[in-house]
Specification:
With about 525 residues, this protein is an alpha/beta fold. The protein contains 15 helices and eleven strands. The chain binds pyridoxal-5'-phosphate (PLP).
Amino acid sequence: MSDKATNAHKDEFAPPALRGFEPAEFTKTIDSLTQWAMRYMDSLQDRDVSQAIEPGQIGAMLPDEPPREGMEAQQWDQVIEDIEQIVEPGLMHWQSPRFFAYFPCSSSMPGVMGEFVASVLNVNGMLWSTSPSVTEIEMKMMDWCAQMFGLPDVFRFDCDLGGGGCIQGTASEAAVAALVAARKKKVKSGRDRSTMTVYTSTQAHSSILKAAMITGLADDPEDQSRVRLIGVDKHLRMDADALMQAIREDIAAGLTPCLVSTTQGTTSTGAFDPLKAIGEELAKLPEADRPWLHVDAAWAGAAAVCEENRFVLDGVEAADSLCINPHKWLLTNFDCDLFWVRDRKALTDSMSITPAYLRNAESESGAVIDYRDWHVPLGRRMRALKLWFVIRYFGIDGLKEHIRHHIELAKVVEAFVHAEPRLSMATDRSLGLVCFRVIGESELTERLIERVNDRRRVMISHTVVPIMDEGNRPESIFDRWVARVAVGASGVRRKDIDELIVEISAALDEVIQ
Ligand SMILES: *Cc1c(COP(=O)(O)O)cnc(C)c1O
C-alpha cells in the first residue's frame, strides 16, 4: 500500500500500467516466479510427461467472467498457485527429459533470459530506425549462425554478396516468405501469376502445402493443380529424376515452375532430399525457366554446427533460401526460425510497401535493413537476444557437445531396436531420430505407440510412411505405422533413455503376448 501511496504522491496521474513495477514489489514477484520455475523444472524429473485431460476440463477451472477489480502485486502467490493448479495439469511437458515425441522444443537458461530481457524491453523493431539494436544484433546473429553452420558466403551480410537473413517465427512463415519472393521474381520477369507451380516431395512438411494455400496456389491440401508432390525412393528421399521430369513437363505445358522446396531432415523420418543433385539439375535449365530453390532444414539444420554433420546441408550453395529452427534443436526458446536468402532484394521486392507514416531518411538512403520487408508481420520483437545469449553462453563448442550428446543417446535407442527381435528399424537412424516398427502387422506398431504413451512415463510419436516389406522387394512398399523417438529434450540423460527402453519393452510385452 505504502508504495502506491508514495507513487501517487510523486505523480498524481501515475499510470496504472506501472503498478507492480516498484522495485521492492517487482523483485519479490520475480523472486517467487524464479522459485516456481525451479520447482517446475525440478518436478519434471519425476512427473509423467502428460496427464489425461477431458476437453473443456482446464477452461472450466477459470471464472466465466473477467474480474471487475484487479489485484495487488502482493497477491501474486495466487497466480502462481493457479499456474500449478490450472496450467500445469493441462500441459504436455515438452521440457521433460523423457519427451521423445515430435521434434524437441529446445530450451535453456540463457534462452529463458533472452525472452525475459526481450519482454522487459518490449520494443518493436519493424524498421531499423524504430530500434537499431533490434536489426543490427539480429543481422550479426544471422551472420554468426551462417558461420556456425558452414553456410556459403552468399548468405552472409558481412560478405556483401546480396544475401542475408532474418529471424522468422517459424519455418512455416519462412516457407510463405520464400514462395512469395519466388513468385514475385517470376512475375517481374514477365510470367503470369496464374501459371505458377510448386514442387516438393510427398514427405515434405505440411507447411509447404500450407504456404501454397495461403498464396492462392492451392485451394486445399488435395488441390494438386499447381502443386506437384514428387515421389520418393526407398529411403524416402525426393526422386530427383521425377522432379526434373515434372518440371520439364510443366514448362512444355506453358506453366511456370516457381519454387522447389527440398527437405533436409524430413519430419516423419529425418530423410535428406538429394539437394546437391537437384541443385545441379536445376542449374542446367535456362535461367528464365529455373525455379527458386528453398531448403527446409527446420530440425536437422542445427546438427550442421558439428563438422561431421555438415552433410545435412550438402548442396546448399545452390539454394535461394534456407531455414533452420534453433527453437527445435539448438537450445533457443520458442520461437526462433533462421531464414536466409541469396538475394535479399528478391525477397523485399515481394513484401515492401511504404506508407507515408513509415518513411524515414535512413530507409530511403538504402543504408539500412528494414526487417518488416522480410516477412508477413509489420511489428517484430527482439528475438535475436535469446540467440545471442545462447551462443555466447554455450559457445560453438558447447552447442556441438549438445548435438553430439543427443546423437550418442539416439544410437543407444538404435542399438536396442537392433537387439530386440520383435522390432526393426523402419529407416536408418537420422541424427537424433530413431524410427522403428514392430515386426508383423502395421497395426501392432500403432498399438505399441498407444501403450507406451498411455503409460505416460515417456512420450513418443508416430508417423505413417511407405516402407518396404522385410523381403526388401520394391513391389512390397506399403504405408505403415512407424514409431518415432526424437532424442532432443534439453536435459535428457542416459538414464532417461534406459527408462524409455524399459517402457517400450513393457508395452511390447503387452502388444505381443
Ligand atoms: C517442424 C518442421 C517444420 C515446421 O516448423 P514450424 O517452425 O513450427 O513452422 C517445417 N519443416 C520441417 C522439416 C519440420 O520438421
